[in-house]
Amino acid sequence: MQHLKKVFCLLLLFYFSFHFLMPATFYLIMGYTPTYQTDYFSIQSILKGGGLNLASILLAGVLIYFTKLNFTYKPRADLRSSLYLIIAILVTVIDINTASSFADKIKGQGGGNIFIVMCSLMFNVESYILFAFASSSSFFPSSGLIFVFFKLLLASRSAPLTLVNIFLCSLASPNLKKYWKRYSVVVLISVVFSFQGYKWASLIREKSFSDDSSIVTVLSQETSGIPQDNRSVTTRIVGRISFLENMMVPIYYKDVLKMDRSNIFYDKYSLSNQLKILVNNLVPGDIFEYDVYPNQYYRSAFLKLDPAISKTDYTSINMTLPVFFYMYWGSIVSVLISAALIWGYFMATAHIARIHPLFGFVFLSGLVGNFLAFFDIVMLVKMNLFGLMAATIFMLLSKITPDTGKFKWRKS
Question: Based on CB atoms within 10 Å of each CB, which residue in 16, 38, 321, 334 is the most buried?
Fold first, then answer.
């Protein structure tokens, strides 16, 4: 279990280093450039947001360090994965060919056939890489390049970061010594070509919604009032990675502009509203009034976007877990709650790993993107549930997958 603790804490360190320290260093050297808006800038708000996140992570790390669990974590690497990979590739190809344009997806009209969409949540190359690296005797590292290619076709620019996250999660796997060199080459290739890939995916996006005036108004410029062409690709990538501006603006609204409870934030981001959306997402039909994920209302709460557009056009922005609680209860309570929740997520990860190690990897993979970036209950629960379903299918398919011979795992 000590090994799982170390991997969990390493993910916490990566989260803060990658989304806070690295962008801050870049801006100190190159100068600060806003990504989403030009109206507000407050170094005090940035420092406060960074401090809230750092304090929460450090306190959580202390709690995790002193936590003693009376069971051991025994990862396995004996599952067969080739059949799952074949099905995942087929489902992804069908999904790409039946999906609507990127503009339609932004407007909530994309996704193609609902059956294919559901299948793609349980059969996808990302899940294959996570599961196979963690527990397969026949992992195919080059599948990472297939994953990057598919994500670019879908106009997604996050594939390299996903591959890095999976690598960090897989530090808890006995497969690490066997595959890390080949997988590292794949990650390196994806990172090196991420600049060109970013431009390619951006062109797909721009072409897809170039004729849609409402989408162009919101998304054709990532920064309100600052054309994309005036910023280098490196600056744009750093802006998307950075959480500095994301957390600065809400804190500025609360501390300087004295935002009151009439702001749409306190309605759409409330835990009660998130629970209603979660129920609607987990059961057929809508028990409660239909609404979109809370993060889509970030621009309406803080960037003056019409709430009607936020509801119809996907424009999600993360504000980080501690800043979310800061908006309600201030610094001390925010740090205490955030640290307690991070520790609780670690405990949930450890206990779910007792059922099967692969389930633990599902929870590990969701720590950074679905939990720390913003405590989105809907996305966190939904993606972990589908991840557990995908892991179960992966294990069942392993029983009927032929032995791949030369890739057979041998215990060293």
Answer: 321
Asked if 20 and 53 touch (Cβ cutoff 8 Å), the reply is yes
The residue type of 39 is: D
* Interacting residues of 177 by C-beta distance below 8 A, sequence separation 6+: 412
- Beta pairing partners, 317: none
Please tell me whether residue 79 adopts helix, strand or coil conformation.
Answer: strand
Distance CA 166, CA 129 (A): 8
Task: List the structure tokens of 231.
Answer: 């910023």
- Write out pLDDT tens, residues 313-336: 777 788 999 999 999 999 999 999
Count of beta carbons in the 10 Å neighbourhood of residue 252 = 21
Closest C-alpha to 194, from 225, 223, 163, 227 = 163
DSSP result, 369-403:
IIIIS---HHHHHHHHHHHHHHHHHHHHHHHHSPP
Q: What is the pLDDT of residues 140-160, one digit of tens each?
A: 999 999 999 998 887 777 889
The string over 221-240, giving b where at least 16 C-beta atoms fall within 10 Å of a residue's C-beta and e elsewhere, is: ebbbebeeeebeeebbbbbe
330 contact partners, CB below 8 Å, separation of at least 6: none
pLDDT confidence band for 410 (50 / 70 / 90) = very low
**Which residue reads 């390619």 in tokens?**
200
**Mean of per-residue pLDDT scores for the chain:** 85
d(CA 217, CA 6): 45
Ramachandran assignment for 355, one of left (phi > 0), alpha (psi -120 to 50 degrees), beta (any other): alpha
d(CA 174, CA 136): 10
Q: What pTM was computed for the model?
A: 0.88
Burial of 193 (0-12, 13-18, 19+ CB in 10 A): middle
